[in-house]
Write a sequence for this structure.
C-alpha cells in the first residue's frame, strides 16, 4: 500500500505523472511544489471533511475556527454539545446531526489504517453524512493513501478541464477514466489539480 508521507513521496508521484502525460509534464513546473496536506487521522479529520461539504473553503475555514474556539473537535465535546452550541459554531442542522451520529458510532479509527482503500471507504460511508467524496478526502489527507482521486470534486473537475483544454468539465466517470494513467499516484494528481485550480482561479478549491 503506497502512502504519501513526505515531500519525497510527492516528488515521486509527480515524476510519474510527468512521465506518463505531456500535459502534466508541462503543467507541473508551472504549478510548483505540491502541498503535502497531511493531517492527523481520527474524528477531527472526518469532522473537518464534513464541515467542508458543499460550501466554499472560506466558509468552511470560518466554521472550523469557531468550532476550534468552542472546543468542538472531539466526539466527547460534540456528544455533550446542545443544538444551539453547534448552530452557534455555524453548523447547519444536518451537519450537526451528522457529527453527533459519527461521535456516537464509536468507529475504531486506528483500525482504518490497515484496511484496503475500498474497505476503509466502506467503513466510512456507513457513518452518518459520509458519502464517497468525504471518505476519499479522509483517505487522502488523514490516511495518506496515494491512489485516491475524489473524482466527484468540482474543483478537480474544473482544473482538469482547464489544464487539458477541454470544452466541458468532465464528470466523475470521465475524470476517473482520464486518471487511469495516473495510477498509482492519483492522490498526487489531485493535489496537482487543486494547485492548478488555485493558480487559474485565484482561490482555493480545497481546505
Amino acid at each position: 500500500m503506497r502512502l504519501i508521507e513526505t515531500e519525497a513521496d510527492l516528488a515521486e508521484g509527480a515524476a510519474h505523472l510527468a512521465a506518463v502525460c505531456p500535459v502534466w509534464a508541462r503543467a507541473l513546473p508551472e504549478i510548483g511544489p505540491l502541498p503535502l496536506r497531511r493531517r492527523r487521522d481520527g474524528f477531527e479529520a472526518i469532522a473537518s471533511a464534513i464541515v467542508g461539504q458543499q460550501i466554499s473553503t472560506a466558509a468552511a475555514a470560518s466554521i472550523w475556527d469557531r468550532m476550534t474556539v468552542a472546543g468542538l473537535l472531539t466526539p466527547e465535546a460534540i456528544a455533550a454539545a446542545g443544538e444551539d452550541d453547534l448552530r452557534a459554531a455555524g453548523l447547519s442542522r444536518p451537519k450537526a446531526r451528522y457529527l453527533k451520529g459519527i461521535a456516537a458510532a464509536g468507529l475504531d479509527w486506528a483500525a482504518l489504517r490497515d484496511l484496503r482503500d475500498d474497505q476503509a471507504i466502506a467503513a466510512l460511508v456507513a457513518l452518518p453524512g459520509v458519502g464517497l467524496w468525504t471518505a476519499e478526502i479522509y483517505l487522502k489527507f488523514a490516511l495518506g493513501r496515494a491512489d485516491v482521486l475524489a473524482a466527484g470534486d468540482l474543483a478537480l473537475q474544473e482544473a482538469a478541464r482547464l489544464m487539458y483544454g477541454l470544452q466541458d468539465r468532465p464528470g466523475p466517470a470521465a475524470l476517473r477514466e482520464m486518471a487511469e494513467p495516473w495510477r498509482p499516484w492519483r492522490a498526487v494528481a489531485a493535489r496537482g489539480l487543486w494547485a492548478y485550480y488555485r493558480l487559474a482561479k485565484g482561490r482555493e478549491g480545497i481546505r
